[in-house]
Design a protein that fits this description.
This protein is α+β, with helices and mostly antiparallel strands. It contains four helices and five strands; from the N terminus they run βαααββββα.
Length: 97
């Protein structure tokens, strides 16, 4: 999968250094994956939440942080839509961001 944009993740781990390794690991795993459906994601990330419009919410660092992505399975692309603390996540609408 092509993940757009790693810079968003980097900005997060600069601000919150305790999640750097988890975000780097997620990026590597996502980049090496060949997800064709949400079922493929659930096999690797059972706690991921599948939302409408091909959006997925990943729990990072024991659910301290939330990562929202939108996926185009046909083109193997993952767009990072949001990364932040669980409290920040509670203030957004993950289906629209």
């Amino acid at each position: 999968m092509r993940v757009i944009a790693k810079k968003t993740l980097k900005n997060c781990w600069i601000q919150y250094s305790d999640c750097e390794q988890q975000l780097k690991t997620w990026y590597q795993e996502a980049s090496e994956s060949k997800w064709k459906s949400s079922a493929d994601i659930k096999r690797l990330y059972p706690s991921a939440s599948i939302l409408a419009d091909n959006r997925v919410v990943f729990n990072i660092k024991g659910n301290t942080y939330r990562l929202v992505v939108r996926i185009n399975y046909d083109y193997s692309m993952v767009w990072i839509r949001f990364i932040g603390t669980h409290t920040q996540y509670d203030k957004i609408d993950a289906t629209k961001i």
